[in-house]
Amino acid sequence: MVESVKVITTDIKNPWINLALEEYFLINQSRGEATLFLWQNKDTVVIGRNQNPWTECNLNLMEEENIRLARRISGGGAVFHDDGNLNFSFILNRDSYNVERQCGVIINALKLLGIEAVMSGRNDITVNGSKFSGNAFCFRGKNGLHHGTILVNANKEKMARYLNVSREKIEAKGVSSVKSRVINLCEVNRELTVDTVKKAVIKAFEDEYGSKGEHIYFSCNDKDIWPKDSKFREIITRNGSWEWNFGETPDFNISLKKRFNWGGVEIYFKVDNAVVQKADVYSDALCEEIILRLPELFAGTKFDGQELSNKLLKNKETFELEKDAQVKEQVLGDIASWLKDEL
Questions:
Q1: Terminal-to-terminal C-alpha distance of the chain
Q2: What is the 3-state secondary structure (H, E, C) of the chain?
Q3: What interhelical angle do 194-209 and 99-112 show, nearest 10?
Q4: N or C: which end of the chain has fewer CB within 10 A?
Q5: For residue 104, how far is the Cα from the chain centroid?
Q6: Alpha-carbon gap, residue 317 to 308, rounded angstroms
Q7: What is the pTM of this model?
């Protein structure tokens, strides 16, 4: 039973901090309390707990354009966050947790704005048959988290670019995203802004749970009000780490193929926890001394273009070519550059 209501908002746009706040609130939720957390991220791709970033997003493009990658603690698919997207988090005790009721808050918020929305399956909320809100769920002890997106005026062109990746050469065990037709709420009502939607969600939440909530604001410029618990700092550090965002990826296989002026190369990587377990290399190049050494060099290396490239270049002097040192320089340099650019 809900006895008290808490509404938390923030101007923080860092996904690793926002996801840490959300998880911290979930872990420390009080008995009989219902919490609403509203937040936004600056240009970020957020993947589900069991997803593979190499299959879900265009990592090369994201790196070029300074787009962050974040892994959340809930399941579900990959989403793109920007300033036109509002994220909501409902945190309740298990005995008060009800997905339909929580989705009803979002539906009722839109009613206040003159828009009719409906649930579609368990995970989506739609308007006119198109998805504007995807939802995901997670539990910690006696508490439950239900969070989701609200597309108000998100950049759908960026969304398509960053979440679009060729999967032809990847065999993965992770959960793949299901592509749906999406819509911005501003396409239904041009007057809508993130701020007006935020106010409507707060009102609908307080109406649903029967009381005016305690309002808490977390500012990026006032860290004095941030949680002092060391656990919170640990979660932030984890959220921004390579080990969490990439290393937690389920095992997968990937093949890369390219033809150079000295010959063609095909590499089949077996990857587990984002570390190369095995690499099979095939080539019609004449420098077989190099090709035969590559599998042992790649094994045990992080599956990262820069890491694999560095491994080759740092071990360059260990390659002994009987004929032409220039061949060694070109072949190793070409493969190193290719892997760096490709991954």
A1: 50
A2: CCCEEEEEEECCCCHHHHHHHHHHHHHCCCCCEEEEEEECCCCEEEECCCCCHHHHCCHHHHHHCCCEEEECCCCCCCEEECCCEEEEEEEEEHHHCCHHHHHHHHHHHHHHCCCCCEEECCCEEEECCEEEEEEEEEEECCEEEEEEEEECCCCHHHHHHHCCCCCCCEEECCCCCCCCCECCHHHCCCCCCHHHHHHHHHHHHHHHHCCCCEEEEECCCCHHHCCCCHHHHHHHHHHCCHHHHCCCCCCEEEEEEEEECCEEEEEEEEEECCEEEEEEEEECCCCHHHHHHHHHHHCCCECCHHHHHHHHHHCHHHCCCCCCHHHHHHHHHHHHHHHHHHC
A3: 130
A4: N
A5: 26
A6: 16
A7: 0.83
For 138, list phi and psi in degrees, rounded to 5.
-160, 150
Q: Are strands 33-39 and 4-10 parallel, antiparallel or unpaired?
A: parallel
Distance CA 86, CA 67 (A): 18
Nearest CA to 46 out of 186, 305, 239 is that of 239
The pLDDT assigned to 329 comes to 82
Looking at residue 165, what is its pLDDT?
55
Cα 241 to Cα 210: distance, rounded to the nearest angstrom: 40
pLDDT score, position 80: 96
| 224, β-bridge pairs | none
pLDDT at 50: 86
Domains of the chain: 4-245 (3.30.930.10), 252-342 (3.30.390.50)
Report the C-alpha gap between 179 and 163 in whole angstroms.
10
Place of tokens 């919170």: 232
Phi-psi group of 28: left, alpha or beta (phi > 0 → left; psi -120 to 50 → alpha; rest → beta): alpha
